[in-house]
Batch of 2 targets.
Target 1
Amino acid sequence: MRSMILTSLLFTLSTTAMAGQVYTWVDKQGVSHFSELPPNGQASTVINTATSAPRLPASEKLPPSQTKDPEQETIERKVKHEVATQEAKRREFCETVRTNLAQLENNPRLRAQIKGEMRRLTEEERQARIAEAKKAIEHSCR
């Protein structure tokens, strides 16, 4: 028990000792810099790394149900549903395009229905469709 208390006390002291000062400054080009050492010949600001961000007291925190307007929550649910539906359609489209690309690349003798008639694709048509599929994958499936 004593060793655990001693270990936690030493750990707390060591982390406090390691949390030294951090300096920040902006150079002539407008670039912000952070360092453990202050810059030479330039004004800098010391950042206190030992303290954490302030927290709201429990009395000031609102329960999640009271933070949003019910109408806004309805709209957000609707938008989330639409986004999920669009994402599912995009995934399905990508799977179809990738399957078509594999067929086009691995099958030089493909038949397709063109203007209501089944016929074999020429090599130029096949290459054009391969290019279209790759472009669709690049645009929509990355």
Target 2
Amino acid sequence: MLHNHNSPHANQIGVLYRHGDVLIRRIASLPIGTQKREGAALAEGELTGHSHRLQEANAVQLWVQGHHLFLEVKESNATLVHEEHQAIELPQGVYRVWRQREYRPDAYVEVMD
């Protein structure tokens, strides 16, 4: 289910948010073994220099486990911003973050801004 900010389901586990080439899914809790990561940027734009970032850096905590990225929104909500996309509000909770990938005959590659 993709999230519509007017939806009463925003706080349910499994809700998906898409922000350009970033996909975010609400999860029940952080996996065991995650480690804190500094900053509030979910993805840096390799081509444009723009980033998908949380506007309220003090309201969020990023976590990593290997190559997997997780986001914890610690306040009632946080705003995800990017110069080329409409801002979206993420309610308090824990999320798994993915970079969108595209298929090419020889490999799957991350989408670049």
